[in-house]
Automatic annotation (TrEMBL):
<keyword id="KW-0012">Acyltransferase</keyword>
<feature type="transmembrane region" description="Helical">
    <location>
        <begin position="302"/>
        <end position="318"/>
    </location>
</feature>
<dbReference type="InterPro" id="IPR050879">
    <property type="entry name" value="Acyltransferase_3"/>
</dbReference>
<feature type="transmembrane region" description="Helical">
    <location>
        <begin position="363"/>
        <end position="382"/>
    </location>
</feature>
<feature type="transmembrane region" description="Helical">
    <location>
        <begin position="261"/>
        <end position="281"/>
    </location>
</feature>
<protein>
    <submittedName>
        <fullName>Acyltransferase</fullName>
    </submittedName>
</protein>
<keyword id="KW-1133">Transmembrane helix</keyword>
<keyword id="KW-0812">Transmembrane</keyword>
<feature type="transmembrane region" description="Helical">
    <location>
        <begin position="324"/>
        <end position="343"/>
    </location>
</feature>
<feature type="transmembrane region" description="Helical">
    <location>
        <begin position="77"/>
        <end position="97"/>
    </location>
</feature>
<feature type="transmembrane region" description="Helical">
    <location>
        <begin position="234"/>
        <end position="255"/>
    </location>
</feature>
<feature type="transmembrane region" description="Helical">
    <location>
        <begin position="12"/>
        <end position="29"/>
    </location>
</feature>
<feature type="domain" description="Acyltransferase 3">
    <location>
        <begin position="11"/>
        <end position="339"/>
    </location>
</feature>
<keyword id="KW-0472">Membrane</keyword>
<feature type="transmembrane region" description="Helical">
    <location>
        <begin position="199"/>
        <end position="222"/>
    </location>
</feature>
<dbReference type="InterPro" id="IPR043968">
    <property type="entry name" value="SGNH"/>
</dbReference>
<feature type="transmembrane region" description="Helical">
    <location>
        <begin position="172"/>
        <end position="193"/>
    </location>
</feature>
Length: 672
């Protein structure tokens, strides 16, 4: 007999072990299991199976569902260990670079409130977000499950009560309702995944079908058999083995380049379902021969704590050591996670799970745990809000102009006296983002970020992506000094090309970018500015200079004055984190000019078309080095974008580059 107490179903315990091992190996040694992230999908099926089965059996037995008691069981089972890990991460925040504190604190709060998956979904479409791997990121899957635990009984109970009054079988209502939600969620996942994989990966709406699959199985699969069918012992045993092979196939065949979840998630989820269907079968060919072994049972028993602890340990190791995980360090991290999981399971999970607390006390304990964790994260956020970012020091910082001073030595810079401060550097971005004039991934409409006087005779347009937007503050400064009208046209992660370019994050050709580029060309043909400046990420390995030149040539053929703003040096490491993590920052965090300032696709495209190139390299680099602090200003907010503060100091150099051309055109127009 299969009951819905997880410790009485050894195959499910073993399946938990398979899931957590897949995730652990993927996080520690991704080259071994490049698709190990499917372990999370196995967890979703298990959760859907156990929780829906529990609710269904309770309804059959009592004619109702005791929702407070259900929530109390979830509190005792899940919250104590999760709270312990969350508070440990909160205490460990000072170990991380100051620039990460606010992000980690926000993740702690989001995890405590069970919205971490939506927090990460928002970041997935915001390339401004910190691309570092936060120690609380893995709580996204727990948030999905907790949202299911909270909402599912509230939705299900009135539906089945109405069905009972109408004389409809509760089983049919459960199945029908689960099927409706599951099919709708699967279709949505299939449609959204190729369009917006970042959101699709984390969204509850695209994962609900995996929980629903387990739920449907729970209603059908009672006492070891599938209702209405007569599975033979060997057939069910074979299903179990096939299920394990399906999960393993996803782990080995999938990778970060797989469009996921969508169709691809069917393989591991159906595999998990097959293993559950096979549970209880005693056969030499059954999955139980593997899953019921002592090792798998133990790992399944500690799987929850193991999942909670492994990721913060990995992130902390990489952050503190500054090294990639190797065979030896990976083994030590795995051992450390197992030890912490065992201690956590023994001293925290089990005592709270078996405690005989009164219902009211249990629910208050849950509320208190959530409040305590939220307070721990909020304390850091309040400190951040009460410590505003300065935009200037005692005197206006020189910034880029310092590089033209023969007496200037960047080695004399003091990281503690720069603007923006290290802990605030990621927030130092162009006002274009607050104004929401930087176009998103999905949209193709041409938005403009406008500075200056629209009546001006000197009209400038810049086209590109975030590597154009980080120049916009320079034009804000220029517009204050000169009678110009600047309009910035930028789209997230978009390489200005009418030919679709493959995007690794989207895992498909970026068709919205190509359409936006066509719309930009039409817009420029109508507006006809005096100068069109092009600046975006080089797209190395994605696009060729010839493809870029073919698009740019359309502008040249219109008679527009097209110019390329040369790409800034690209350190390839997070500058703020590097400075914060190294006392000898001048040796560790200042790259050589030869390594980070190279000709790229855009440069070669401009040369092919004989388009003038505006080169500001000497404001970033001396003969040998490209400093990351110049004239009391941090140059980079990450590894490849300027801070808005430094970009503003390039307003005067930009004026010097453009003034002769614009003054000539203005005079020519006035003379006509």
């Amino acid at each position: 007999m299969i009951l819905f107490r997880h410790h009485l179903v050894p195959e499910i315990q073993g399946l938990r072990a398979v899931a957590v091992l897949a995730v652990l190996i993927y996080h520690i040694w991704p080259n071994i299991l490049p698709g190990g992230y499917v372990g999370v999908d196995v967890f979703f099926v298990i959760s859907g199976y156990l929780i829906t089965g529990s609710l269904f059996k309770e309804f059959e037995r009592t004619g109702g569902i005791d929702i407070p008691a259900f929530y109390a069981r979830r509190v005792r089972r899940l919250l104590p260990a999760a709270t312990l890990v969350s508070l440990t991460v909160a205490l460990a925040i000072p170990l991380f670079a100051r620039a990460q504190w606010a992000d980690i604190a926000s993740s702690i709060v989001a995890s405590a409130l069970y919205v971490q998956n939506w927090f990460l979904a928002a970041q997935a479409v915001d390339y401004l977000a910190d691309d570092s791997k936060g120690p609380m990121n893995h709580f996204w899957s727990l948030s999905v499950e907790e949202q299911y635990y909270i909402v599912w009984p509230l939705v299900l109970l009135p539906v089945v009560h109405l069905a009972r009054r109408a004389g409809v079988s509760p089983r049919a209502v459960f199945l029908g309702f689960i099927g409706l939600i599951g099919i709708g969620s699967l279709v949505y996942s299939i449609l959204l995944t190729p369009q917006n994989p970042g959101v699709a990966y984390f969204a509850t709406t695209t994962r609900a079908w995996e929980l629903a699959l387990g739920g449907a199985l729970a209603v059908l699969h009672v006492r070891g058999k599938v209702v209405g069918t007569g599975y033979a012992r060997q057939v069910r045993a074979g299903l179990g083995l096939m299920g394990l092979f399906a999960i393993g196939g996803g782990c080995w065949a999938y990778s970060d380049q797989t469009s996921f979840p969508g169709y691809a998630a069917l393989l591991p989820t159906l595999g998990a379902a097959a293993v559950i269907v096979s549970s209880g079968v005693q056969s030499p060919w059954s999955a139980a021969r593997i899953l019921n072994t002592r090792v798998f049972q133990y790992l399944g028993d500690v799987s929850y704590s193991l999942y909670l602890w492994h990721w913060p340990i990995i992130v902390a190791y990489v952050e503190i050591s500054g090294r990639a995980i190797g065979p030896r360090s990976g083994a030590l991290l795995l051992l450390a996670a197992l030890i912490l999981a065992h201690v956590s399971k023994t001293l925290v999970e089990d005592p709270f799970r078996t405690a005989r607390f009164a219902l009211r006390r249990t629910l208050m304990l849950g509320i208190g745990s959530i409040a305590l964790t939220t307070l721990a994260g909020t304390a850091y956020l309040m400190r951040d809000l009460n410590d505003p970012m300065p935009t200037a020091i005692a005197a206006a910082p020189r910034g880029a102009a310092a590089m033209k001073d023969p007496q200037y030595d960047w080695r004399s810079e003091d990281p503690t006296k720069v603007v923006p401060r290290l802990e605030k550097v990621r927030a130092d971005v162009s006002s274009a983002y607050a104004a929401k004039c930087h176009q998103t991934v999905q949209a193709t409409e041409v938005l403009t970020c406008d500075y200056g006087d629209p009546r001006s005779d000197a009209k400038i347009v810049m086209v590109g992506n975030s590597h154009a937007t980080h120049w916009f503050p320079a034009f804000e400064e220029l517009a204050r000094a000169q009678p110009i009208y600047f309009r910035g046209l930028a789209k997230s992660a978009c390489i200005f090309s009418v030919e679709p370019v493959y995007d690794a994050e989207l895992k498909r050709p970026y068709t919205e970018c190509a359409q936006w580029s066509k719309n930009v060309i039409d817009w420029l043909s109508r507006e006809r500015p005096d100068v069109v400046l092009i600046s975006h990420s080089p797209g190395e390995g994605k696009v060729t200079p010839e493809v870029l030149a073919a698009t740019w040539k359309q502008l040249v053929d219109m008679g527009l004055d097209v110019r390329h703003v040369r790409s800034i040096p690209r350190p390839s490491f997070d500058v703020g984190k590097c400075i914060a993590g190294h006392h000898d920052w001048k040796a560790k965090c200042v790259p050589s000019r030869e390594k980070v300032l190279k000709r790229n696709n855009l440069y070669f495209a401009a040369e092919q078309l004989k388009i003038p190139i505006l080169d500001f390299s000497d404001y970033f680099c001396d003969a040998k080095h490209c400093p990351v602090i110049i004239g009391d200003v941090l140059v980079y907010r990450d590894s490849h974008h300027m801070t808005a503060t430094f970009a503003r100091t390039l307003g005067r150099p930009m004026e010097e580059k453009l003034a002769p051309l614009l003054h000539f055109k203005a005079a020519d127009r006035n003379s006509g």
